[in-house]
Amino acid sequence: MYLQLKRLDKKFGHLYAVHNFSIDIEEGELVALLGPSGCGKTTTLRMVGGFLKPDNGHIILEGDDITALPPEKRPTATVFQSYALFPHMTVLENVIYGLKFRKIPREKACTMGMEMLEKVGLPLSGSKTIGQLSGGEQQRVALARALVTRPKVLLLDEPLSNLDAKLRVRMRREICQIQSSLGITTLYVTHDQEEALALSHRIVVMEKGQIIQIGPPQDIYRRAENSFVADFIGRSNIITLKGGEKVAIH
C-alpha cells in the first residue's frame, strides 16, 4: 500500500482530537476527510504533513516510516486554507520558493516554476505580484508552489473555502483535472459535503476524532451506515424503526 495511517492518536489536554485513525491509501488516490468543525480532519492532515506529532501510531509512505520526520524532510506538500503566499514576491518567486531549500539552481527552478504555472493555467502570470491576482488565481499559485517540489503526497486543507460559490465549483473541476493528470496521491480536508462528493475517489467521514464511515462517494451518499452520516450528508430522511434503529431513506 502506498500511504498507510496506522492507529493515529492526538490529544490536546485530556481530550482526543484524533483517536485510533487508520486508513490505507493507494497511489494516485484522492481521499477526502469530511466532517464538521472540530472533528479532527485538519489535525489528521497536519500529522501527515509533519506539523503535529502523533501521540501514538505510525505514518508509512512507500514502506518507510515517516512519523518522526520534520515537515521539511517529508515528501509531502501542503496547500493551506489561507494560501500563505508572500505579497512582496512575484508569482514565480512564490512558486519556486521551496526549490531553493532543495539546492536547485535558480535557472532550473525558474524553468520548473514556469512549467508548473502553465499546468495550473497561469502561463503569463509569473511576473505579476500576488496583489494583482484574483482569489482563484492565488489558489492556483498556492497549488503550483506545492506541486513544483514534486511531492509524493499532496495535502489540501480546505483550499476553496475562501472563494465564492461559483468559483469554488470551477476550481473543483480544475483540481480534479490537475490531480488526475499528475496522478498525485492527495488528502483533501473539507467540511463541504458537495465538494467531497464531487472530488474524491473515497470519503472518510469523521466525528469527534474518529472515523465513522469510509467509502466511495456513491456509497456514502446512498448507503450511509448510521444516522450521523445520513444527516451530515444532508440529502436523506431519517426513519426510526420500532426497535430504535435509524434508517436513512433517499
Give a written overview of the molecule.
The chain has eight helices and twelve strands. By secondary structure, the protein is of the alpha/beta class. The longest helix is centred in the C-terminal third of the chain and has 18 residues, at 165-182.
Give the SSE map.
Blueprint (H helix, E strand, L loop, with lengths): L2 E10 L2 E11 L4 E5 L6 H9 L6 E6 L2 E2 L10 E4 L11 H5 L10 H14 L15 H13 L5 E5 L7 H18 L2 E6 L2 H7 L2 E6 L2 E6 L1 H6 L4 H7 L3 E4 L5 E4 L1
Parallel strand pairs: 3-8, 3-9, 6-7, 7-8
Antiparallel strand pairs: 1-2, 1-4, 4-5, 9-10, 11-12
Distance between the termini: 34 Å
Tell me the CATH superfamily: P-loop containing nucleotide triphosphate hydrolases
Radius of gyration: 19 Å
Give the percentage of residues in beta strands.
25-35%
Mean residue pLDDT: 90
Give me the side-by-side strand order of the main sheet: 6-7-8-3-9-10
What is the number of E strands?
Answer: 12
Which architecture name does CATH use?
Answer: 3-Layer(aba) Sandwich
Q: What is the percent of helical residues? A: 25-40%
Give the total of domains: 1
Low-confidence stretches: none
List the defining traits of the structure above:
250 residues, alpha/beta, six-stranded mixed sheet, four-stranded antiparallel sheet, globular
